[in-house]
Amino acid sequence: MGKAGERLILAFDFGTRRIGVAVGNELLASARQLDPLYARDGIPDWAVITRLVDEWRPDLFVVGLPLTRDGEEQEMSVRARKFGKRLFGRYGVPCEMVDERGSTGEAKAIAREAGHRGNYRDDSVDGIAAVLILESWFAQREGLPG
Fold it and tell me: What is the pLDDT of residues 111-120, one digit of tens each?
């Protein structure tokens, strides 16, 4: 287990059809997207997550918490929290939730600038959103606004 400041982190952008994934290094405050996970009504293929955990050996999970514009919890917040609790329960790796408001819109803007044609169902931005969630977590750790 890496010590604070040097941990390897797997971040997730929870969704009912797809779950974005990013991996990051706390020391470098860097993140990169991995292939998204497919889910059926929010339930991922846990064997795929187990392979990710075995490959990356994360010290921490970070899961985006979808809140309303007013910062209130909603149904998807409950589902994302449940996903985070299941990650901890299955792998014994601590899990932190981070406010993900605006991450999907920002991810779409980044993708458009890179030439994305706008078909987000076939060409998702979930991995970019997971990177943004992890970068927000890094910023909060440094005392910066998320």
Answer: 567 665 655 5
